[in-house]
Sequence to fold (415 residues):
Amino acid sequence: MKKLILIIFLYPFVSFSQWINFAPGSAGSMGSLIIVAKNIYYYRAWNNVKAINTLYFTKDGGKTWIEKTNVWHPAFINDSTGFGDLFFKKRGFWNIIKLGRTFDYASTWPDSFNIMPDSITYEEVAILGENVVITYQKEFNLTLLISSLGEKILKVCDKSLFNIHFINDSIGYGLDKKNFGIYKTTNGGTSWNLVNTISGNWPWSAFQFTSEDTAYALLQSSNMILKSTNGGISWDTLKIQTQNLSDIEFYNSNVGFAVSPDQPKRLFLTKDGGNNWAFLGEEFPIYNLHDINCIYDKDSVYLFLSFPGGGVTNLYKGSFALKDILSGIPEKTELIRSNYTCYPNPTSGIITLKCNGEIPCMGKLYIMNLHGQTLLSQYIHNQENEIDICGLSKGVYFVKVVDENGVWVEKVMKE
Fold:
């Protein structure tokens, strides 16, 4: 394996403050987020109130969550249709496992659908259109392709392939963690062929091809990112100036993100294929940044971050325009003209921010001076939110609110 240590200099600190905590209130730690669309998510986690595993569903971006029937390893091909493995009566020390299927937003999972190999459960799923690729525990050497809404099940590889992902409708990649192999499909997952066997810098905790030539991998429990520019045949070594990284996600071969669990304020952005990295997300109030998920539309990047630990899960999301990330510092510029009201104005010290839109209001409020410096900030969730500026000098300030819809700004006079 080719190895090249690069000394990486970071861009100046980048402020990225549009983060909203959208986790279910009863969700415990170490959950699994399934993003179906921009505002449609499923979240499987321990329910701290009911003391059971729960599958949560939201169709309004996390403002409200509905508790659904739980399954293990859920995967959804659209907002209402999905698959999951179900445990039934025990045979000796083993569970009988079936593949459950739902068409009604996880309200029911018919238990007579299809019997899977007895006594084993799958560990990962990957979605390609209406097809699902299922990876079983690596000791069982089995990867299946489910098509026709579950009516057809095909064994596609005699290895258990992990981190499966597709770069288009035909080409995808996966990892054989047992034998350290990189596999590739050119027919939508119907068959898989070995590309290369990894001889060093193993194991990997994240792995992603962005094109047939360019790929990235994250060495487990390290700050080392590996990069290939020849289809996974050889790998160079990149390093970020932090102690550990927990996940990476790339938008294309040049633009990507990395997260560190060691301390807050540690979300990184690269725009040049990993040679330089910028800080994002200095506003995170908690430690243990763990996973990152991204979705994209023609205009924006949407980031979803999880902070498991301490018996609860915090899920944060934020977005910014693609034109900003590709050309300069991300900054959300769309102005909201009528969603908020700030009073009294002038004020002697206490101001109230009233949300005129949907409740709960999920955003962050900033008090800034005329030079744009942030003096105070707090998260807002209620229809009416009080802010104490008694400690500020008399003068004119900006009240700025950032939420998932954009930015609202108002001048306020402190007497």
